């Protein structure tokens, strides 16, 4: 469902009302996730916001051409900020602020220039983790943010979340949502939002256009995947007009591959199997393959596309990868006649889009047998799906267009709660009109 005006203006006012913003894509990060996160970082920073952008994995070096890549942080400082507030009413002016640490105690010494500070002028507070808003991008559900999520659960429960995504499996987490399941990439959703708001629109630099186009090119596999819509092509054209560097993207994403990746691709393409009657094509990469080729399971990400170009005439293409940490991961793509998102969900508890979905199997004794078993289940699932789509009369000749699977209702957009003021931040920012404010901070920092 495309974005509506209420969602857009609620998201815009959330950004305008926040000062410290945390931007997070999903773990196993892909170019759409990173491109979205970095584009948000650039736009919000230009609006004077203090933006922290997270890459919840080791940073993928092949994407280091992305503008702003160096800004990515793998984690955040979760240290507490305990705030001691001195009320300056009654004509008190602060001259100096010092602190001493002795006998296991910290003494904060406030020396007034004029007036007197009484104990009743002092209060205490806690600024918590220090973010006003979390912007989640390209992430269908919060646990997909991996370790970063589990390490910072408190943050996710105390800070309002703006959920920006295009996955049909999105669970509508967060207080604010901008989910457009008709968009080919999360960057396409962002582009629509940015274009809608004059204050954002003016900030789309060639760097930001490059980030947005990266997500669009990779999530549509250069506009070859069926999720490509006329709108995606239009957005791509507009981004090019705004200076997106398409050649740079293509060069880095498609033409530079480490040797280990090419070897593992070769191995997988050698192993293609198919069930012609069911219309399923699959291949496997085992843990032994990865070890032998000195490759990581992440390097298998482009293989599925190669499977599709090698044997295009199938209803489902699947790549099964045995993971280093145990279990297996299956990535699927399908023709218009099969809804793989629903199959993945129903059979294996996975999810995704109707034409591109995935699932994991955590436990099995033998990888090859687990694959055979999964293919068998999918085959049965496809037959059932086919029957229910066609009604009681079976017909192999014509497969009707499947109806869109039901979408969860849009959650009511709520204004994020107003958070407490950060004392230190305010003093630091109020340079022009405060006499001693800056000196205080300066001395404290030293
Ligand atoms: Mn995406």
Descriptive keywords:
446 residues, alpha/beta, inorganic pyrophosphatase (n-terminal core), Diaminopimelate Epimerase, Chain A, domain 1, 3 domains, 6-stranded mixed beta sheet, 5-stranded parallel beta sheet, 16 helices, 15 strands, disordered C terminus, binds manganese (II) ion
Question: What does this protein look like?
Answer:
By secondary structure, the protein is an alpha/beta fold. The chain folds into 3 domains: 5-77 and 130-253, inorganic pyrophosphatase (n-terminal core), CATH 3.90.1640.10; 82-126 and 422-445, no CATH class; 259-390, Diaminopimelate Epimerase, Chain A, domain 1, CATH 3.10.310.30. The chain has 16 helices and 15 strands. β4 and β5 form a beta hairpin. The N and C termini lie far apart (53 Å). Bound molecules: manganese (II) ion (MN). Residues 32, 138, 166, 185-186, 219 line the site of manganese (II) ion (MN). The site of manganese (II) ion (MN) has 6 residues, from loops.
Write the layout of secondary structure elements.
Elements: H1 5-17, E1 20-24, H2 31-46, E2 50-53, E3 82-86, E4 93-102, E5 105-114, E6 122-126, E7 133-137, H3 147-151, H4 153-158, E8 161-165, E9 176-179, H5 186-196, H6 198-201, H7 206-219, H8 230-241, H9 246-254, H10 259-270, E10 273-275, E11 280-285, H11 287-293, H12 303-310, E12 316-322, E13 328-334, H13 340-348, E14 351-352, E15 356-361, H14 367-390, H15 423-429, H16 437-445
Parallel strand pairs: 1-2, 1-7, 7-8, 8-9, 11-12
Antiparallel strand pairs: 3-6, 4-5, 10-11, 12-13, 13-15, 14-15
Helix pairs in contact: 2-7, 5-7, 7-8, 7-9
Manganese (II) ion binds at residues 32, 138, 166, 185-186, 219.
